[in-house]
């Protein structure tokens, strides 16, 4: 099982980024996927969830209305579109799947600062 996040970077407040999580080594379309984030000195927080087909999604209250999760099962990839970014969105973002245990990517860093 391998998860590789990408798309992070430095962005000004109010800007946008799209994160990607490329999966391999398992039957991607059979598993729900989650995005988490961890800010310096804080606990890891679940940001968004998407079901196997993408029909069901959910979001943390802190990002609802600004972030959107989607997936392309043909490409084994999950996306996190982040709009109206705020400095408090600064964190390392991880994707996660649960296959008889939790698997995580290495994370991609997002910094929101002017």
Quaternary structure state of the chains depicted:
single chain
Q: Taking Cα atoms only, what radius of gyration do you get, to the nearest Å?
A: 13 Å
Please outline the major beta sheet: 7 strands, mixed
Percent of sequence in beta strands: over 45%
Tell me, what's the shape? globular
- Number of helical regions: 0
Strands, total number:
11
- SSE topology string: EEEEEEEEEEE
Our measurement of the CA-to-CA distance between the termini, rounded to an integer number of angstroms, reads: 37 Å
Q: Show unreliable segments.
A: none
What's the overall average pLDDT, rounded? 97
Helical content (DSSP H or I, runs of 4+) = under 10%
Query: What is the structural class?
Result: mainly beta
Structure description:
The protein is an all-beta fold and 114 residues long. It contains no helices and eleven strands. The strands form two sheets. Strands 2, 4, 5, 6, 9, 10 and 11 form a seven-stranded mixed sheet that branches. It has a four-stranded antiparallel sheet with strand order 1-3-8-7, with no helix packed on it. The protein starts with a strand and ends with a strand. The mean pLDDT is 97.
């Amino acid at each position: 099982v391998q998860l590789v996040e990408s798309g992070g970077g430095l962005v000004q407040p109010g800007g946008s980024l799209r994160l990607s999580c490329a999966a391999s080594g398992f039957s991607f379309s059979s598993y729900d996927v989650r995005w988490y984030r961890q800010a310096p000195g804080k606990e890891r927080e679940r940001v968004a969830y998407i079901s196997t087909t993408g029909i069901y999604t959910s979001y943390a209250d802190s990002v609802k209305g600004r972030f959107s999760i989607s997936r392309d099962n043909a490409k084994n990839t999950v996306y996190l579109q982040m709009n109206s970014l705020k400095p408090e969105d600064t964190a390392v973002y991880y994707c996660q799947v649960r296959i008889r245990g939790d698997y995580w990517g290495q994370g991609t860093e997002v910094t929101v600062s002017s």
